[in-house]
Design goal:
By secondary structure, the chain is α+β, with helices and mostly antiparallel strands. It is built from ten helices and six strands.
C-alpha cells in the first residue's frame, strides 16, 4: 500500500511538472526587443520623463521668448440714475408769473469706454536673447535626462529579463534532476523487492526526490515572482504569461573597445554635465543684462462715450471721444542696492562649481568604465571556466552513473556526482547571465545601450 501511495505521488509530480512544461511551451515568446518596445510605450518613469521633455520644449516656443509685444485691452461702462427737483424760489418767468418747480425723475447718465494698449521692449541688455538660449539648452538637457531614464530603465529591464531566463533554465535543470532521482528510486525499489539492496537505499532515493521537488517548487516560485517584476516594468497585467529567450550572444571585446573610444561624445552623464555648464554660462550673460539700460515702446488707443440726461437748464447731450498715444521709454537701474552685482558674482561662482563638477564626473566615468570593463572581462573568463567545469562534471556523472548501474559505487557517491553536476550547470547559467548583464552595463557607460542589438 505504501509503495502504491508513493508511486501515486510521483505520478502526480510528473503530471504537474509536465503540465507546467506544456504551459510554458505554449506561452508566447517575449523577445528582448519586444520587451524594450513595451517599456518605451508603457513604463511610468519613461512617460514622466517624456512629459518633462515636452514641458521644456514648450518653454522654447517664441511665445515664451519675450520677443513678442504685450497687448492689453480694457472696456468699461456705467449707468447712473437720479431724481432731481429745482425750486426757483419765487423767480418770475418772461410773462411776469412765478416760475414753477421743475422735477426730473429717473434721469440716466451712461458712460462707455474701451481701449487697447501695446508695450514692446526694444532692448533689454540682451537678457531675453540669452534667456531664450538658456531655455533651448534646458530643452536639450531634458532630452538627455529622458535618455538617461530610458537607458537606466533598459538596463533594469534586461537585468530582470536575464534573471527570468536564468530561472527558466534552472527549472528545466531541476526537472531533469528530479527525473534522474525518480528513476533511481524505482530502480532501488525493484532491487529492494528482490533483496539486492537494503531499505536504506530506497529511503535515500525518496529523500533525494523530495529535495529535488522542493528545488523545483522554489525555482518556479522565484520565476513567477520575477515575471511579475518584469510585467511591472512594462506596466501591464502582473500575471501576464510569457516565455523569454535564453540564447545569449556576447559582444566581441574589440567592438566594445571601439564604442569606448567615443565615450566623451556619447556618455549621457558627460553630455548632461556639458549642457548644465552651458546653462550656467547663459545665467552669467543674463545677469549681466541687468546692468544695462532697457528701451521700450508703448502705444495706446482709447474710445469713450458719455450720455447725459437733460437738466433744468440744459438739454440731453451725448459726448464721444477717442485718443491715440505713442511713446518711448528708457529705464536704467543705475544702482539697485547691489542686487544685480551680487547675482552676477554668484552666477560666476555657480559656473565655476559646474566646471569642477564636470571635471570630477569625467574622472568618475573613466573609473566606472575601467571597473565595468574589468568586470566584463572577469565575467567572461568565469563563464568560460564554468563551461569547462560543466563538461568535467558531465563526464564524471556519466561515468559514475555507469558504475552505479554496475553496483560499483554507492548511492551516496552517485548522488554527490549528481549534485555536483546540477551545481555546475546552475553556476554556469549564473555566470552566463552575469556576463551579459556586465556587457549591458559597459554599453550603457559607452552610451550605446540603445544603439546595439540586445
Amino acid at each position: 500500500m505504501m509503495h502504491r501511495l508513493l508511486y501515486g505521488i510521483i505520478a502526480l509530480l510528473y503530471l504537474a511538472f509536465a503540465k507546467a512544461d506544456a504551459q510554458q511551451s505554449m506561452e508566447s515568446l517575449l523577445t528582448r526587443e519586444q520587451a524594450v518596445e513595451l517599456m518605451l510605450e508603457n513604463n511610468y518613469g519613461i512617460k514622466i520623463a517624456k512629459n518633462s521633455e515636452l514641458i521644456a520644449e514648450n518653454n522654447t516656443s517664441i511665445l515664451n521668448s519675450g520677443y513678442l509685444p504685450s497687448i492689453q485691452g480694457t472696456a468699461g461702462g456705467s449707468i447712473d440714475e437720479s431724481d432731481s427737483r429745482t425750486d426757483f424760489n419765487g423767480a418770475l418767468d418772461q410773462n411776469g408769473m412765478p416760475r414753477g418747480d421743475i422735477e426730473i425723475n429717473n434721469a440716466q447718465t451712461t458712460q462707455y469706454n474701451a481701449g487697447v494698449s501695446l508695450n514692446y521692449t526694444l532692448f533689454d541688455g540682451l537678457g531675453r536673447l540669452y534667456n531664450f538660449k538658456r531655455l533651448q539648452e534646458q530643452y536639450q538637457l531634458s532630452q538627455l535626462q529622458a535618455r538617461s531614464t530610458i537607458e537606466n530603465t533598459t538596463v533594469q529591464l534586461m537585468s530582470v529579463y536575464l534573471e527570468i531566463a536564468r530561472l527558466t533554465e534552472n527549472v528545466k535543470v531541476f526537472e531533469q534532476n528530479l527525473e534522474i532521482s525518480t528513476k533511481r528510486e524505482v530502480r532501488a525499489q525493484y532491487q529492494f523487492d528482490y533483496g539486492q539492496v537494503n531499505k536504506l537505499e530506497v529511503l535515500n532515493a525518496r529523500v533525494d526526490i523530495n529535495t529535488d521537488s522542493i528545488n523545483i517548487m522554489n525555482a518556479q516560485q522565484q520565476l513567477r515572482n520575477t515575471k511579475r517584476d518584469l510585467n511591472l516594468l512594462l506596466n501591464r497585467e502582473l500575471d501576464a504569461q510569457f516565455a523569454v529567450d535564453t540564447i545569449v550572444t556576447l559582444q566581441n571585446m574589440l567592438v566594445i573597445d571601439s564604442f569606448l573610444e567615443k565615450v566623451a561624445e556619447n556618455n549621457v552623464r558627460l553630455l548632461q554635465s556639458e549642457s548644465t555648464l552651458q546653462i550656467s554660462e547663459y545665467d552669467i550673460k543674463t545677469t549681466k543684462a541687468l546692468l544695462l539700460p532697457r528701451v521700450g515702446l508703448s502705444g495706446s488707443y482709447g474710445w469713450n462715450q458719455s450720455q447725459n440726461p437733460p437738466s433744468a437748464f440744459f438739454p440731453a447731450t451725448t459726448r464721444t471721444g477717442s485718443s491715440i498715444a505713442i511713446g518711448a521709454n528708457l529705464t536704467w537701474d543705475i544702482f539697485d542696492g547691489g542686487r544685480s552685482i551680487t547675482s552676477l558674482r554668484n552666477a560666476k561662482i555657480s559656473y565655476e562649481n559646474e566646471a569642477l563638477f564636470k571635471s570630477q564626473l569625467e574622472q568618475e566615468v573613466l573609473r566606472d568604465i575601467e571597473n565595468a570593463k574589468g568586470n566584463y572581462k572577469n565575467a567572461l573568463a568565469i563563464y568560460r571556466m564554468q563551461e569547462q567545469n560543466v563538461t568535467t562534471n558531465e563526464d564524471n556523472f556519466n561515468r559514475t552513473q555507469e558504475r552505479f548501474k554496475l553496483g560499483q559505487v554507492s548511492s551516496i557517491e552517485f548522488r554527490q556526482a549528481q549534485v555536483n553536476l546540477i551545481n555546475a550547470v546552475t553556476v554556469k547559467n549564473l555566470a552566463k547571465y552575469d556576463a551579459k548583464l556586465a556587457e549591458y552595463q559597459l554599453l550603457q557607460l559607452a552610451g550605446q545601450i540603445l544603439n546595439v542589438p540586445l
